[in-house]
Write a structure and sequence with these properties.
GO terms for molecular function: GTP binding; GTPase activity; signal recognition particle binding. With 312 residues, the chain is α/β, with parallel strands linked by helices. The protein contains 12 helices and 10 strands.
Length: 312
C-alpha cells in the first residue's frame, strides 16, 4: 500500500502559488541579462519588464536607478539583478507585513470586509472565521451582501461548516440595518469577533459607496470605535485595477488593512508590492489557493526572494 502524501507546508504552497509570477520575472530577467553589460538598453528593458509585472512605476524605477549607480557599463548577472530586486521588494513589504490582531477588550471586535464582486471576499471571511476559532475565539458572521442570494447562501454554508452563527436577511434588504442587528446580537452573546460581509462595490457606482458609508455610520451607533478593522480584499489577477480599487475604498471606507487573494492564478503577483508601496496599509494575509490553510500571514523576505526566483 502506498503511503499517503504528506500535506504541503505553507512555504511549499506559497512557492507553488507564485510559480506563474516567478516564472515571468525570473525568465524575463534571464533573457535580458544573458552575459550582457548594464547599459541604457538593458535598463530600459528591465524597467519595462518590472512595470509589466505590475510592480509599479516607482519601484521599477528605483531598482533600475540602484543597479545603474552600482553596475553601469559593467557586466551583470541575472542573479545580481534578482538579488537587488528581492532586497528592494523586501524592504517595501517588511513595513506592512502585519498579521491581523484582535483586541480582547472589544466585544465584539467588528471587522468589516469590503471589495468588488469576485475578489474572494466571502471565501476569505470563511477562512478567517475558521482561523479565529482555532485561536479559541467565538465568531459570528453577518451576510451584509443583500444584493445577491448566492452571497447570502455562500456565507451560510461557511457558517455551517465552521459551526458559527450567521445573521442574514432577505435578498434586497437593508444592509445597514442588518449590520446594526448583527452588532447588537454579537454584543448580547458576548461574541469575540464579528465578520460583516458587504456587497461587491463597483468603484464607479456612487450609490453603492454611499450605502457602505451608511453601514459604517450605523455600526458606530453601537460602538463609536467600530468597525475596528475594515479589510479590503483584492484579487491579484486584476493587476493594476487593484490599485484603483484600493484608492476608492480607502476614501469611502477608511480601509485599515488588505488581504490579497488568488496569487496562484496570475503572473501579476508584483501588484502586492505596488499596493504596499502606494498605500503603506498593513497587508494581513495573502491567499494562494482554495483551502483554509492557503490564506496566511506572509514573511516579507521569504515572499520577495521567492517572487523573483531566489529560493535560498
Amino acid at each position: 500500500m502506498s503511503e499517503e502524501q504528506p500535506k504541503k507546508g505553507w512555504f511549499s504552497r506559497l512557492k507553488d502559488g507564485l510559480k506563474r509570477s516567478t516564472s515571468a520575472l525570473s525568465g524575463g530577467i534571464s533573457s535580458i541579462f544573458n552575459k550582457k553589460r548594464l547599459d541604457a538598453t538593458t535598463l530600459e528593458e528591465l524597467e519595462d519588464l518590472l512595470i509589466m509585472s505590475d510592480l509599479g512605476v516607482e519601484v521599477s524605477r528605483r531598482v533600475c536607478d540602484r543597479l545603474s549607480a552600482q553596475k553601469y557599463d559593467k557586466e551583470i548577472s541575472a542573479e545580481e539583478v534578482q538579488a537587488a530586486l528581492a532586497e528592494e521588494v523586501s524592504g517595501i513589504l517588511e513595513a506592512v507585513a502585519k498579521p491581523l490582531e484582535i483586541n480582547p477588550g472589544n466585544h465584539p471586535h467588528v471587522i468589516l470586509m469590503v471589495g468588488v464582486n469576485g475578489s474572494g471576499k466571502t471565501t476569505t471571511i470563511g477562512k478567517m472565521a475558521k482561523q479565529f476559532q482555532n485561536d479559541g475565539k467565538s465568531v459570528m458572521l453577518a451576510a451584509g451582501d443583500t444584493f445577491r442570494a448566492a452571497a447570502i447562501e455562500q456565507l451560510q454554508v461557511w457558517g455551517e461548516r465552521n459551526n458559527v452563527p450567521v445573521i442574514s436577511g432577505k435578498v434586497g434588504g437593508d444592509a445597514a440595518g442588518l449590520a446594526f442587528d448583527a452588532v447588537k446580537q454579537a454584543k448580547e452573546q458576548n461574541i469575540d469577533v464579528l465578520l460583516i460581509d458587504t456587497a461587491g462595490r463597483l468603484q464607479n457606482k456612487d450609490y453603492l459607496m454611499e450605502e457602505l458609508a451608511k453601514i459604517v455610520r450605523v455600526i458606530k451607533k453601537h460602538d463609536e470605535t467600530a468597525p475596528h478593522d475594515t479589510i479590503l480584499v483584492l484579487d491579484a489577477t486584476t493587476g493594476q485595477n487593484a490599485i484603483m480599487q484600493a484608492e476608492v475604498f480607502q476614501k469611502v471606507a477608511n480601509v485599515t488593512g488588505l488581504v490579497m487573494t488568488k496569487l496562484d492564478g496570475t503572473a501579476r503577483g508584483g501588484v502586492l508590492v505596488a499596493c504596499a508601496e502606494k498605500f503603506a496599509l498593513p497587508i494581513h494575509a495573502i491567499g494562494v489557493g482554495e483551502s483554509i490553510d492557503d490564506l496566511q500571514p506572509f514573511n516579507a523576505d521569504e515572499f520577495s526572494r521567492m517572487l523573483v526566483g531566489l529560493e535560498s
